[in-house]
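Re: weekly structure request thread

Next one in the queue (514 aa):
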Amino acid sequence: MKAIGLLKSLSIKSMFIWAAILLQVGCQTSPQYPDKTSTFKLATQTQSVLSQYVAADLQANPDLTGVVPLIDGVDAFIARLALVNAATTSIDLQYYIYRADESGRLLLWHLMDAAERGVRVRILLDDMATKDADNTLLLLAMHNNIDVRLYNPSFERHFRNLAFISSFSRLNHRMHNKSLTVDNSITVVGGRNIGNEYFSNNTDVDFGDFDLMAIGEVVDDVSDQFDLYWNAPLTVEINALVEGKATELELAQAMVVVDSAKVEYQDNPYMKRLLSSQLIQKMANHSLPWYWGQAKLIYDQPDKQNHQLDSDSILANLGAFLSQANQEVLIVSPYFVPTRAGANNLIAAVEKGIKVTILTNSLAATDVLAVHAGYRTYRQRLLESGVRIFEVKANLELKRSSSWTGSSKSSLHAKTFIIDKHSLFVGSFNFDPRSAWLNTEMGLIIRNRELASEVVNGIGESLAANTYRLSIRDEEIVWHDDSKQREIYTEPDAGLWRKFLVDCIALLPIESQL
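Done, posted below.
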């Protein structure tokens, strides 16, 4: 029964891995992608609410990018809602996962409201997580101001799991990018998808995550990135994928249901938490703590499989970024599989006197066992070479939505790399082969010593209570629970079945898919 339950709970990332086991190469020829009309970002309207909101800050900091870190899950969600509610001309939404849960519905209602106000809404989703959502997406696209497109979709909509296996070589490439840009004036970029677990709205699991809300020079670059994907041949309109068509009556009925649901939702406990957010108060008072600096948006091409060795790929950019470190490197990655080359680079950095620290999930905290198997291959060698490793605990005693490591049944999901406490990368890139070679990724590099130092210090303050510190003793790994002054000599909080599965997976030649 445990095995059945575990298989039912497999994550999307796990599905890729198991498909790779079943079929290493696809056997279906590339499909003919239907034509579509290209559309592009709308010019920033100087009289729009958001444009005026940021005008004074931009004037005082010309040619720079300002960012506000979004660590708290509630803050991260209310920031998105506030931006959507303030939209005047356009909303561009791009995500790997958009769940049909409470958070997903709430954001969707506000997107529909914006469309009713005349705002152009473009929704770009990776197709891997849209199962059972075709009718909803088709209904949304019925609205004159909403367009929906899917990245690299399965053209077989009814037997998608079989289609994934038969077309594995094509469908194995996914869009992992995450961005929300409003009126080409403010954008949110980072590690969060759309779903309860990303916004501290889930009592069962809470992902510790990290986004940046940004204004200034980089916003136009995010819009250009969105346009590149939106108009790419791999992106297909929902109307071209799904048979049938929603009617105007169905759309009108849906709007009535939404209006009714919004009224009922006013007394929802999560809504009350949103409205009491400190961030929304600061937004209303125009007192957001912007951190200013030179910034660069880095991202892959939509057809990444044809551009893996390009000098402007996210992998090349991150390699150049990390190589600039002189004193210390902090890597926060929920899925950490460095590969032999990556491990060698980290060890070489230590040998140069650079302090290298890794924060990743423990076996008990991870939602992808295969990734832990891949990470485990390199863990001991890294520790023996002087790399510092901390693993997030699965069950934390202190429930803090603002914690880097989440709360309740906890799992790290943030992806950030920091060098010398002066520059940081925040985005969708995991330190693993899938992010390096298979999925498209994006993120923001910004140089600001104050922000980088605060992030490093914030993580440092949470380590003792929320993580295990790993060390080597007598050629064996020891997990130190510094909050309780105890040592553990086996993977903590992980049952025998979980350990057995990881042992089995570790025997499989699937590192390239992790």
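The first strand starts at residue 65 and ends at 70. The mean pLDDT is 91.
Next request, please.
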